Amino acid sequence: MIYTTFYNGNQYIGVYCKASEKFAIVPEETPLSFKDVVNDVLKVDVVTTNIMGSMLVGSLLSMNSYGAVVSNFANVDEIKYLKKYMNIEVIKEKHNAIGNNILVNDYGAIVNKNISPKNIKAIKDALNVEVEKMSIASYSTVGMVGVATTKGAIVHPKTSDEEIMRIKEVLKVNVVKTTANFGVGMVGTSVVANSKGAIVGYNTTTVELNHISDGLSLDV
Predict the structure, then answer these.
(1) Rounded to whole angstroms, how far apart are CA atoms 214 and 194?
(2) Predicted confidence (pLDDT) per residue in 101-113, tens digit
């Protein structure tokens, strides 16, 4: 199932929400109507918290079914709350918008090639997957230009064929190039998904929905 909507009037759903096969995380200020959409489409429990005091949860946290990673700028209460639901690793990293810098599913992770070796190990341990450092379509912020689930992945339309092959090898799923929100290549900012469904920015066209559906192996 794919559902198009806004988050408080904003089409960039992926900035405000992050999902795995087990949970979805949304900001404290999230309307009940949006929580209901997340629960209905993604078929997961909805966890409500801010990260670093911010609503930009999707940009500031990365997770899969095994765990989550946040920057050390997340506050103590936020981390304590999240630990009720999942294993969480806190890393000290100058690229502190962690969600923007990791593209992950339950099979592998692709990370910003500038992240330190120490933090690569921490990410590997937290998410329980092998980690590959690379850029995608010339962007180091790989979490902004891709979305991955256990059934497939979508990436920026300028992703090269060589990059597609590497992504397939790491994430172990099919990969489709697409835009969302009427031509936005940063699909990670516009789509939240797991194997059961996807929530997409309202301005996403029918053609884009078909590409997203193909990439994530979902019904439109």
Answers:
(1) 14
(2) 999 999 999 999 9
CB-CB contact of 195 with 149 (8 Å): yes
**Spatial distance between the Cα atoms of 143 and 155, rounded to a whole number of angstroms:** 9
Q: Which of 3, 1, 42 is nearest to 24 (CA)?
A: 42
Domain CATH number, residue 147? 3.75.10.10
3-state secondary structure of 147: strand
Among 56, 76, 77, smallest CA distance to 188 is for 56
Q: Report whether 141 contacts 101 (CB < 8 A).
A: yes
Q: Which residues pair with 155 in a beta bridge?
A: 146, 177
- Domain ranges, residue 62: 2-216
Q: By C-alpha distance, which of 9, 48, 21 is closest to 192?
A: 21
Distance CA 59, CA 130 (A): 21
The pLDDT, as a whole number, for residue 62 is 98
Query: Residue 182's pLDDT band (boundaries 50, 70, 90)?
Result: very high
Beta-carbon neighbour count of residue 184 at 10 Å? Answer: 19
Closest CA relative to residue 11, chosen from 168, 210, 197, 183: 183
Percent of the chain whose predicted confidence (pLDDT) is above 70: 100
pLDDT at residue number 219: 86
- How far out from the chain centre does Cα 197 lie? 13
Alpha carbon 56 to its chain centroid, in Å, reads 12
State the DSSP H helix or E strand holding residue 124, giving kind and residue range, or none if neither: helix 117-127
SS3 content of the chain, % helix, strand, coil (to 5): 30, 30, 40
Number of structural domains in the chain: 1
